[in-house]
# Entry
Amino acid sequence: MPTNVGAEYVAAEKEYSEAVAIQDKIKALEKMYSTVPKHKNTEKLRQEIKTKLAKFKEKIRKEAEQKKKGKTLTIKKEGAATIALVGPPSSGKSLLLQKLTGKKVHVRDYGFTTKMPEVGIMDYKGVKMQVIEVPAITPGYF
# Structure
């Protein structure tokens, strides 16, 4: 069925196909929706545009939620147990991790050497245990 779309719709459709950013795609879709003639033959086209708009807006909403939450880090659990080494700067957490697991970690004589969690596996009487050293925690951290 012919939809009899005008030149404005064709220009908006071209703008949509060339858009890279989600915001630009949304603007182009809104322009397309506003220029489509409203009659029985265009109902399906109008619905498709509305569906695309809803998907892009939902995607933007989810991205905004993730930004609010901040960065997260997930460490996969390994072994029979997980042990976390937590403490203030320069308390020997890195050295303890190195001695228990044999993993090469940066051990320095100044604080805040560990920037990201370090993971090692300790073998204690045949039982494998995961040891995680977290970066230093200071007063007012939480």
Notes: The first helix runs from residue 7 to 18.
